[in-house]
Amino acid sequence: MLTAAPHLHVRRPSPTTAEFTVSTYPRNPTPALRLLLLAVGALRLVLALGAALLLYAEYWTQFFTLASYQQSNLWLLPAAQHEFLLYHTPLGRLAQEVAARTPSWALVPACVGAIYAAVRRIHVEERLLVLRGLGIQTRSTPGTILLGGPTRFIPTEKIRDVLINEAFWGFGVRYILVVVVEGEEGLVVVFPKLLPRREIVEEVWRGVRGCLFDEGGVGEHQQFHQQPEKKRRFKDTKRRSPTKDGKKSPASVKENSGEEVRDRS
Amino acid sequence: MPRLTYNIAMVSDFFFPQPGGVESHIYQLATKLVDRGHKVVVITHAYADRKGIRYLTNGIKVYHVPFAIIYRSATFPTVFSFFPVFRNIMIREQIDIVHGHASLSSLCHEALLHGRTMGLRTVFTDHSLFGFADAASILTNKLLKFILSDVDHVICVSHTSKENTVLRAALDPVMVSVIPNAVVSENFRPRKYPPEPPAPNNGFGNATPAVHHLGPNDPVVIVVISRLFYNKGTDLLTASIPRILENHPNTRFIIAGSGPKSIDLEQMIEQNVLQDKVEMLGSVRHEQVRDVMIRGHIYLHPSLTEAFGTVLVEAASCGLYVVCTAVGGIPEVLPGHMTVFAKPEEDDLVVATGKAISALRANKVRTEKFHDQVKAMYSWDNIAKRTERVYKGIMGDIPEADFYGYDVGNTAAWNGESHSGVRSFALIDRLKRYYGCGVWAGKLFCLCAVIDYLLFVFCEWVFPRDHIDIAADWPRKIYHSDDDD
């Protein structure tokens, strides 16, 4: 309910730059959905704080008494704040109580799990930034909100080709957008987490080739996602334009095969 | 009305890069079906460095499924583990017909079972003959019976093979068609054949190649190309070669192929001191077969069992006179004037070879005409056309009476049971068919079918149909020529 099917958003800040974002964030969230997301966020914050407090109480009750805490140098909090937190707030006392009663083998994993659930990202977002003359950069959101996303920049002179391939993935076959990088054994898969549907992959592929190699035929799919002020900047050559019925042109299908295998008996 | 075309999945464990008869059959058939405007994908398992999805020339898409190989060592778990991937491929390629090849391919059997569960039409092509007596045959036959009790149509490569399959799998004979193998005759031209093929449809007589007579002192060269196994009759060959050479001293043998029986042949050569008359080449690649064949005048084929014998067609196409044992489907392969038949025994083989040598010496056999005649008899275009007719029949696109060739309305003559090729997909009907397979086997097969169905329902729930991308089609060829002849 909180996430949507992966969808594409294209941004073209300049004629030589394009950013393709595939995300599971609802495209046009209704006010109700926004409120719900906000509420879920707040809930996660409370959950994280509560779990942290419990863990802290557990840490303290396991190892120290109040007196020994003040003497020891293993402080996590200064003594005054510590005393206030655990002894002068109702929540602190409750946490102490719970920590004392629950065995630590159950409490610690539960708290860690709760914190993980709280910081885990709900929405996955993967980006592909194309800069003509420079290269392309992939970026995807990490699992949690604590880290920045891993990025990978591939300079133009290293890019041998950008193509759509089919691959066995889990219990099925998926269309994947791959970058062939010079000097590398494997292929770089774009959008490796979301693995969007064929329409999105094709659109990104056309966009990337158009932007990176200045090829025409941005493709008619694009009009659904384009911003109004966006104008077609590439000359529309017949060669790359998709056929009428939306199927791929022979050229693009050929691209698809990667390497054409000629096999004869 | 536009021509009806289908999306066909050829499934077999045997496909390129591994060489072989079934492999090239699938490839050639697929190529010709694509020429006729159909869409063909081939599904096989992954070979060492051949994984994933590849395109061959002509737009044939090949799925080398890596999943099947994981469980290759164990047979039973494979039955269902292939299903999710198979279902995904069927949906994304929008397949109408599943066409399995080779009775020893477990991938093919699974695909036929799953295909029926998914409500697709299925065809099975049997490329081999089997016995009834030994344990392995009994097991294979049971398995075959299980799979074939619910297949829409079966294709055999010869009438003998049809008889064999009908008996093994207890099928209704009208469900079985005979479509032979063919050869690419351009690859099997005789030695002095003009490089430009003569214009089609000008008959045999108009462009007769030059007659080449055998001089009185020229040696007759006998070629044998076969894997040297027991069932290929290598023992017969070992016994007959010294006797043939004794009767006809001006004769040479060229033997190509390898196998466990090659040691026997070598011993025979040593014992009889025949090194200068018998040449053993070892194994040759398929594309070199023609070069070996054109060195000879007679092709000797002593096989003990053979479903079709494509090599005989290849030999005749190269302009060789053929001496072969009359076993299995071999007598159906070539017309009488190209062959001398022998019983599968030593004496008769020697006599038959003697006859062939005498006939060649007397220049009675017009071997130079064989190529054009074979070309007219065996072509993949024709095979594809006949296979397409089978597809039309099972899809219900040609009337049943046309397809099965008798009054299908007259069910009383057939014990009232529906023998119609258009078989019901209802689970209960399928279970009825499986139940008839045997006392214990029937129940086991029913269980398998039910589990398969449940797995299908589970897949529909976990991997919904509309979440599967439809694959892009290779541009279809448009087939113009009309095929009513």
From TrEMBL, chain A:
Segments of this protein annotated with the region Disordered: 219-265
Domain Phosphatidylinositol N-acetylglucosaminyltransferase subunit H conserved: 128-192
Pathway: Glycolipid biosynthesis; glycosylphosphatidylinositol-anchor biosynthesis
The family this protein is said to belong to: Belongs to the PIGH family.
Membrane-spanning ranges: 35-56
Keywords of the record: Glycosyltransferase, Membrane, Transferase, Transmembrane, Transmembrane helix
InterPro entries on file: PIG-H, PIGH-H_dom
Organism classification: Eukaryota, Fungi, Dikarya, Ascomycota, Pezizomycotina
Biased composition (Basic and acidic residues): 256-265
Pfam families: PIG-H
Species this chain originates from: Apiospora hydei
Bias type Basic residues, positions: 230-241
Name of the featured protein: Phosphatidylinositol N-acetylglucosaminyltransferase subunit gpi15
GO molecular function ontology, one term from the record: glycosyltransferase activity
UniProtKB/TrEMBL annotation, chain B:
Keywords, alphabetical: Glycosyltransferase, GPI-anchor biosynthesis, Transferase
E.C. number(s) listed in UniProt: 2.4.1.198
Keyword field contains Glycosyltransferase: yes
Known pathway: Glycolipid biosynthesis; glycosylphosphatidylinositol-anchor biosynthesis
Organism superkingdom: Eukaryota
PIGA GPI anchor biosynthesis domain boundaries: 45-134
UniProt KW Transferase keyword: yes
Entry function: Catalytic subunit in the complex catalyzing the transfer of N-acetylglucosamine from UDP-N-acetylglucosamine to phosphatidylinositol, the first step of GPI biosynthesis.
PANTHER family registered for this protein in UniProt: N-ACETYLGLUCOSAMINYL-PHOSPHATIDYLINOSITOL BIOSYNTHETIC PROTEIN, PHOSPHATIDYLINOSITOL N-ACETYLGLUCOSAMINYLTRANSFERASE SUBUNIT A
Name by which UniProt lists this protein: phosphatidylinositol N-acetylglucosaminyltransferase
Protein source organism: Apiospora aurea
